[in-house]
Each structure stands twice: as structure tokens, then as C-alpha cells.
């Protein structure tokens, strides 16, 4: 029997230990810090995309995938907030003149941006 084999279906290497082949499960990915967007997406794929989650986990790609999702979502959110502020003319001048109107406008903008990011990045695969 061969000492090591590779499964063509999943790409995993196996080493012969006694009479049984055991998978070589050594993590090769770096340990990125995952933000709130990545954590939300992780919860989503754990509950609704179990096969996809397991595939990422066994191929040691989960952390880097979640990091990419987190970066994409953060960039999209920041860009949307900036664009919506410009469209609705929410400026520092408004903040100085009428604080409550500015707070209401910013809360509306933040909620709209969050919903867009959730629907396009977080809760989709």
C-alpha cells in the first residue's frame, strides 16, 4: 500500500497510519482578524450553506474567505455612506446648524447602507 495518496474528489492528501489512511489536516492559512461583517456572514453560512461552510473549513480556506468578505463589505459600506451623504447634502455645516436633523439623516443613511451590504454581500454566496 502507498504511504500517501491524494483524493481527486476533494483534493485532500491522506497518510497511511497502520492500516488506515488519515487526512493531512494542517492549516496553511494565516489567521486574519474577522470583523463584524465577516462574523455575520459566518453565522449565515453555518446555518444556511452547511456544505459550503464545511468545504471551506476542511480546505483551510474559511478564515481567508471571511476576511475577504469582511474587507469587501467594509469598503462597500464606507463607499455607500459617502455617496448617500453627498446625494442628500448631509454636511458638517448641517451638523453645526441643526444637530437633530443631521443625526436623523445619518441614522437613515447608515441603516440604508447596512441593508444594502447585508443583501448583496453578507446574506448571499
Could you provide a short overview of the structure?
This protein has helices at 36-48, 50-58, 62-87, 92-97, 99-122, and strands at 4-6, 13-17, 20-23. With 125 residues, it is mainly α. A 3-stranded antiparallel sheet has the order 1-2-3, with no helix packed on it.
User: Rg, please?
Assistant: 22 Å
Class derived from helix and strand content:
mainly alpha
Tell me the span between the first and last alpha carbons: 41 Å
- SS elements, strand count: 3
The main β sheet shows up as: 3 strands, antiparallel
Strand % is 5-15%
Total helical segments? 5
Helix content percent band: 55-70%
The 3D shape can be described as rod-shaped
Unreliable segments (pLDDT under 50, ≥5 consecutive)?
A: none
Oligomer: single chain
Q: Report the mean per-residue pLDDT as an integer.
A: 91
Description:
This protein is mainly alpha-helical. Helix content is 62%, strand content 10%. The protein has five helices and three strands. It has helices at 36-48, 50-58, 62-87, 92-97, 99-122; strands at 4-6, 13-17, 20-23. It has a three-stranded antiparallel β-sheet with strand order 1-2-3, with no helix packed on it. Strand 1 and strand 2 form a beta hairpin. Helix 3 (62-87) runs antiparallel to helix 5 (99-122). The radius of gyration is 22 Å and the shape is rod-shaped. The model has no long low-confidence stretch (mean pLDDT 91).
